[in-house]
Amino acid sequence: MSKFFPTSHLTSIPCRTLSTHHTLCKPLPFVPLLTPALPSRFSLSSPLSNPHRPLSLHPLPDSCRHRNLSIRAFDLSSETQKDESSAEKEKDPADSDESGGDNGSVVKPDKEYPSGEFVFEEFGAWKKFVVKLRMLIEFPWRRVRKGSVLTMQLRGQVSDQLKSRFSSGLSLPQICENFIKAAYDPRIAGVYLHIEPLNCGWGKVEEIRRHILDFKKSGKFIVGYVPVCGEKEYYLACACEELYFPPSAYFALNGLAVQASFLGGVLENVGVEPQVERIGKYKSAGDQLIRKNMSEENCEMLTSLLDNIYGNWLDKVSHATGKERENIENFINEGVYQVEKLKEDGWITNIMYDDEVMSKLKERLGIQEDKKLPVVDYRKYSRVRKWTLGLSGGKDKIAIIRASGSISRVRGSFSVSSSGIVAEQFIEKIRSIRVDVDLLFSESKSYKAAIIRIDSPGGDALASDLMWREIKLLAASKPVIASMGDVAASGGYYMAMGTGAIVAENLTLTGSIGVVTGKFNLGKLYEKIGFNKEIISRGRFAELTAAEQRPFRPDEAKLFAEAAQNSYKQFRDKAAFSRSMTVWYFINKMEEVAQGRVWTGNDAASRGLVDAIGGLSRAVAIAKQKASIPQDRQVTLVEMSKPSPSLPEILSDIGSSMVGVDRTLKGLLEDLTSSNGIQARMDGIMFQQLEGASFASPFLNLIKDYLSSL
């Protein structure tokens, strides 16, 4: 019948539970999807559609059923593992410069790279005068009243892409830039943050928290107000100078949990047999279809990820509040639900309503009670240019290419230009940066370096490889650095392998070097419902993916397995080559790093998959180092991705939909049975189609609709 590729999707609910969902898709023959066992939104705070649904856990293996998900779930702590991994690197000659890739990259210890830490420096008298002059000549819509308070509401989804003025939602680049601008803006007295449930991964949360701490270096105040609070929201809020909750605040600091659901029994009852071929014992994609409980390998991986996130949360909260880690764990285990208890134990500054906090800010700024507090919101302040504040860079330019979402080879018929990573568009941007090299046969003078900002769980294997090739070609002419967001796993990590250095957040989800593919056998289902399908074919393997009414023949199963193994070897060998390891070394010493396992940034760094821990600022510092640009010299960061979606695109999409309703419906139906390539969607269950396939049955479509609604 068809190939599918299921992927785990971890989401969280208010009781701090990670849910595992999966994606089904049909790749092209023998072309696996590079999608990880975990999605881009590894979120411990995003609410589900039914927040009151009780937690239900499926039976676990004996080795995991009574396992205590504590910080030290394994014999070796992350620190010990890091030390041992470092010792192995020092002893083994395969880690020397002689094994470097064609872009001259070698795995370096984290400490050898510049930190990129934010250093606040007061402007001199002349620069202050220039800034004031620029403020006077600015357009009215970019002016800010002196003594204003910057207000930002951090809530919901946080995109890693730039946003236009017509776009809703938050943009991580603009949030971070607003903090930097506010630190130097003489018109901004402080920041007032409204923090509510966030729907993003821990990588983005870490980046925002870092900028909160950087802003505090300016000496200006930053106050947080949190009406609805979970672990992720408090993780941000505790970095503020002062923190306030309303008397009726919803908060749940109960700890973190993980759960997984499985369809193996359901599919068995309806007569559907998934035939999955996966390479990598930790590649849990597919488990939801073929298993009825959690595998020991998946349990081990999820436990490790959970321990890393929970341990990091305890450490950072302990440092911010001045409390002992043990005391924080005891507080969580008490099951506190009264806001007053938070104040008594020093978790918050005070209990106040929003208007009371505003009055307190007036008092702090010396504003009369009957006067209005001057504020500027996030959206308006995003229009303020860095040039106005004297923060624009110098003549040296560094290109930033943002790659967010699932990976596809070409743009779909019903997707806007900003949805996901489209290989053909991404490649155009890469080539535009190195075009001078191709035309003049010399080093490009336009950009000194490039940074690939990746926030992707993977997707199309072919698209990932094509982008990897273009990144390698660019890296041969100038420094290219990968900066990872929430997730850069499988196909996302594949892209990063082509760069000269990889920077990840400590809780970025990365790795997942493995492949999985398969097909459905619907023979029993067809027998139950009285449906019959017959195929006339020419060629020994012509029915390999077309005959969903029967299982694989032995020779077909062998071919399928060998093709999957070949794809895995290509992925693994390129990982070894790109990470400056010989294939022999990778196979014999680092095979455990692959096997489809997802790692946090910290663990990936200790195993040589990542070079440095940090955010975009550290990636810029490393790019400057490799481009021989002094660290104290300003550079101009050029965003190669336009803000999205723009108003013309929105109107164009609406117009196209209204004008061609019949064509749209027809195309949608065709998309259920054919495809221009392989895609990987992380939301719910998404089926993919074979290129040029014309053998799909209406019964299969009904099954697709049913499973998609789960």
What's this entry about, in short?
By secondary structure, the protein is of the alpha/beta class. It contains 24 helices and 24 strands. Helix 16 (491-496) links the parallel strand 18 (480-489) and strand 19 (501-504).
Explain this structure to me?
- The protein is of the alpha/beta class and 710 residues long.
- Helices cover 37% and strands 16% of the residues.
- It is built from 24 helices and 24 strands.
- α14 (423-440) runs parallel beside α15 and α18 crosses α19.
- The longest helix has 26 residues, at 296-321.
- It starts with 8 loop residues before the first strand and ends with a helix.
- Residues 1-32, 35-107, 437-443 and 652-710 have low confidence and may be disordered.
Give the CA-based shape: globular
Beta-sheet strand percentage?
A: 15-25%
Give a short account of the largest sheet: 8 strands, mixed
Poorly predicted runs: 1-32, 35-107, 437-443, 652-710
Structural class based on helices, strands and sheet pairing = alpha/beta
Q: What proportion of the residues is helical, as a percent range?
A: 25-40%
Number of helices: 24
Q: Count of DSSP E strands?
A: 24
Supply Rg. 26 Å
| Average pLDDT, all residues | 76
Query: Termini separation (Å)?
Result: 22 Å
Keywords: Hydrolase, Protease, Serine protease
GO molecular function, one term: serine-type peptidase activity
Family: Belongs to the peptidase S49 family.
Pfam families: Peptidase_S49 (PF01343)
